[in-house]
Design a protein that fits this description.
47% of the residues lie in helices and 24% in strands. It has 293 residues and is an alpha+beta fold. About 3% of the residues have low confidence.
Length: 293
């Protein structure tokens, strides 16, 4: 029943009670004082005393009580069945709530897994971005850093330009020179150059040891070259016409952009007639750590 129906029923009961009370007051006001005091067991007297509505209600209640007493077992079975039915309804509702709860729990777990995967993906994206940024910075440094290496090795005569014909006439008067160059885009500071000349190719593996540098703490700017004469006094046979001698060397310098010291080892072999080519596995560059200056 709706709320309005319950309200109308309550008002109906109140109105019936008021009407019945008014009727009883009228009946009792017309009875003699003695008649009101004498007991009256007849049905008509009861109806007159109680009023039609209350009498009807009393008779209905008596009839209902007699019916219930007569069919007591039936009502026990009926109410037991009702209790069983409502118990089943309650169990079904509880089971349905359990199913809904399990479904919501599964959806919550799925949402949490999605959130965790999203968080992991975001963290991986951040890490990847950091790595790409670091790689970009490293690439920029590598593109802009100085690169100092061997530009050329050559024989010449004192006071003359390189001339093959003159060198062939005066092979013992030839002078060996080394040219280095900064092939990078930023200056190289504190450049040091070490060399070692051997009259013949040594057996491998060979680790050269160097004396004092022939160039010390020199600054070389981008595209700038520097040429220095090599001392061959200990090897009189090292001349223009000698084939097979080698020149080992090491170049060290400081990179101000990356704040790192670099070392470049080289080994060039003379193939005759002023032709030098890199030789062996000694031509390699490596960084030797960050340097605070």
């Amino acid at each position: 029943m709706t709320r309005l129906a319950w309200l109308l029923l309550a008002w109906g009961i109140i109105i019936l009670t008021v009407v019945d009370g008014a009727y009883l007051s009228v009946v009792f006001s017309h009875l003699p004082h003695q008649e009101r005091q004498q007991p009256n067991e007849s049905k008509q007297d009861k109806e007159r005393l109680n009023g039609p509505v209350v009498s009807f209600l009393i008779e209905s209640l008596d009839a209902s009580e007699r019916f219930i007493e007569k069919h007591e077992k039936f009502f026990i079975v009926l109410f037991t069945g009702a209790i069983a039915y409502f118990t089943f309804i309650l169990w079904s509702a509880t089971d349905a709530m359990q199913v809904i709860s399990n479904r919501q729990l599964g959806e919550m777990k799925t949402s949490l897994n999605i959130a965790r995967d999203s968080a992991n993906a975001a963290r991986e994206a951040v890490d990847l971005g950091r790595e790409e940024l670091a790689a970009t910075k490293d690439t920029s440094r590598l593109e802009l850093r100085p690169y100092v290496g061997v530009d050329k090795l050559f024989f010449t005569l004192e006071g003359t330009d390189i001339n093959q014909s003159l060198l062939s006439f005066y092979p013992t008067a030839s002078i060996l020179k080394l040219g280095i160059k900064n092939f990078g885009k930023t200056p190289a500071y504190s450049v040091n150059v070490f060399t070692l000349i051997l009259a013949a190719t040594p057996d491998e593996p060979f680790r050269p040891t160097f004396d004092d540098p022939i160039i010390e703490r020199h600054n070389i700017y981008p595209d700038q070259s520097h040429v220095v004469e090599l001392d061959v006094s200990r090897f009189p046979t090292v001349r223009y016409n000698l084939v097979g001698f080698v020149v080992y060397g090491r170049i060290t310098y400081y990179d101000p952009l990356g704040k790192m010291d670099w070392t470049f080892d080289f080994c060039w072999r003379h193939d005759g007639k002023n032709q030098f080519t890199p030789y062996g596995a000694h031509n390699v560059e490596r960084g030797i750590g960050h340097h605070q200056r």
